[in-house]
Design brief:
Length: 428
């Protein structure tokens, strides 16, 4: 049974008498397994639907006539009605395995579910797909899909991903998806000493002109390394000189206009972030690639229309270490243009260890430490909080300080929204 969250009041389902709180038992002869299955089954002109009321009394049957493609009108709180499929791999670089114990249970879910790839852009490995699922993906045109494929050399791939027994051969599955003309975006998690160097060149060759040349885009991100990384994993952070080599290597494939490198490599080397045109239409945003460029351009666009606001208020901006040079430079431009007095605090990530410098992984306890002695208005990026308003280590924004002299505010992370927000915070 699937609980029905709500029913659109102008829909065929509502007219037939189905209401929020009822549970779906059958739809055209089947219980959908996920929202995509529901859309597929609910697409027909003739609908046979069985539900039960919240009281759990006898089932109710409905025969509904509607147009093909007309929404039936049911809404659900979950997108996957059976269990989210988890991975059966043991990747050396797995970030879930590098988190401390006792955080929220949801942070330990190793989802590897093709449905969430299609719906939310989650990366999947293809190693847990059976024939039925591959057939469904192809028949129902699940596209685009986001696939992690860290190397096209099978030995290197197997050594990095360490798939469980009976795993599907991901290269064969990928070939089937591409032959079926589905749109596939690739992620390479780059691990120093494992899949960089000649292995990376070979992988990029295969993904641009070789066996998998039909993929839509390729994004290369560095493996995150925390202080909880299992010692035997062999994974370590990239050094700036190695980031430099990766940048050159990847630029050799720039003419294909589909290979993109994570911001971290440029920031680690101290290089400029590529210009907007180099990101094409940002096909790897799901992978975080291009976010820095979009932020910079959005911020500067908004800044152009601003003038001095004559405020003497001091505003503090919290950010991660990696992006702090970019933020310092943008805030310098903002202060100059508006006459404001905004300063940037780059928070060292003690929680995960100093190798994790991105802002979204900042924790409440590290921010609290960095703000000791601060006062006035303090802006904290809102993407460090989940939908329940909690940081990774369980802080709500109001718990990050007990100082009466500080006002903590969650700030938007879109560049132009942030610039406009900053202007209001400094003017008020
Ligand atoms: S596929 Fe690898 S990285 Fe992803 S959750 Fe599983 S073990 Fe971790």
């Amino acid at each position: 049974m699937i609980p029905i969250g709500s029913v659109a009041t102008d829909s065929p389902a509502y007219s037939a008498g189905i209401r929020s709180g009822d549970s779906l038992v059958e739809l055209n002869g089947k219980l959908p397994t996920d929202i995509l299955d529901y859309y597929f089954l609910a697409d027909d002109a003739q609908i046979h639907c069985v539900t039960v009321k919240p009281s759990g009394d006898s089932s109710h049957e409905y025969w509904i006539q509607k147009e093909i493609g007309e929404p039936l009108g049911l809404h659900f709180s979950e997108v996957v009605f059976d269990n989210v499929t988890e991975c059966a791999n043991h990747c050396r670089f797995c970030f879930v395995d590098q988190m401390p114990k006792d955080l929220r249970q949801t942070l330990y879910v190793k989802d590897d579910d093709y449905r969430l790839s299609m719906l939310w852009g989650n990366f999947i490995t293809l190693t847990n797909l059976g024939h039925d699922e591959i057939d469904r993906i192809i028949e129902q045109r699940f596209s685009p899909l986001y696939v992690s494929l860290h190397a096209t050399d099978l030995d290197v791939y197997s050594d990095l991903v360490r798939p469980g027994k009976g795993a599907a051969q991901p290269f064969d599955v990928l070939e089937s998806l591409l032959e079926a003309e589905l749109s596939v975006h690739i992620q390479i998690v780059l691990c120093a000493g494992f899949n960089d160097g000649v292995v990376l060149s070979r992988t990029l060759h295969d993904l641009t002109v070789g066996r998998f040349s039909e993929v839509q885009s390729v994004g290369i991100v560095p493996a995150g390394v925390t202080r909880f990384s299992p010692p035997k994993s062999g994974i370590r952070p990239f050094r700036p000189d190695e980031a430099s080599v990766v940048i050159e290597q990847v630029h050799a494939f720039a003419k294909h206009e589909k290979v993109f490198l994570a911001d971290e490599f440029y920031l680690l080397k101290g290089d400029r972030i590529p210009i907007d045109a180099e990101y094409q239409d940002y096909p790897q945003l799901e992978n975080g690639i291009g976010i820095a460029r979009q932020f910079i351009d959005g911020f500067r666009r908004e800044l152009q229309g601003m003038s001095a606001n004559n405020s003497a208020a001091v505003v503090t901006l919290v950010t991660g270490e990696l992006i702090s040079s970019v933020m310092n430079s943008l805030i310098g431009e903002f202060n100059l243009k508006t006459g404001a007095n905004v300063r940037v605090i780059a928070v060292h990530n003690q929680f995960f260890g100093g190798n994790v410098g991105v802002a979204p992984l900042l924790t409440g306890q590290d921010i609290m430490g960095a703000l000791s002695g601060a006062s006035g208005r303090v802006l904290i990026p809102d993407n460090i909080f989940n939908t329940d308003g909690l940081t990774l280590d369980g802080f709500r924004i109001e718990n990050i300080t007990d100082s009466k002299n500080m006002e903590l505010i969650a700030a938007p992370v879109d560049g132009s929204e942030f610039a406009e927000f900053l202007l209001r915070c400094t003017a008020a």
